[in-house]
Amino acid sequence: MNRKMRLPRIVWGTALIFMVATPAMAMDGFNTSSAYVGLGGGRSENKDLGNDKDNAWRAFVGYDFNKFFALEAGYVDLGTTESGSTNARIRGPELVGILSLPVTDEFAIFAKGGAHRLETKTSNPFGSSTDRDTRATYGAGLKYAFNNNVSVRGELERFEVSNNNTNLVSASLVFHFK
Description:
The chain is mainly beta. The protein has one helix and eight strands. It is 15% helix and 65% strand.
């Protein structure tokens, strides 16, 4: 699929997230006590560059519209992958919607999807280049709330990048402003 076909899907996907968020805001009211921040780390794996793995981290802010839907903006650094003498460092912002299915008051399963604007800096003995691309990101995970203010989550997320798709397995600590 060419690049011209990908951007409209991301635009439509982001529009869908906001169409779902608007009724959610109207149902519960917009309130800063539903905001949260988080920090996480994990391991990225790039199958396109020889199954190379590296440490990765993420930071994010979000808003729980209700117990089923949240909107989150974050920054992710997927580390550096290597294939022979070529290195690629991947990082940048993302915007995702999160749909949760509460299993108990403390435990939930979630799916997420949205868009990222990752920067890939590639270098090899012949030079270097920087590419910025807006593409889809999606994933799923589990979250557990210790109390109203602190929760943890584990997730698997896929970042589609031009010839460089990367998976991220991560754990995050989340602080809620309740």
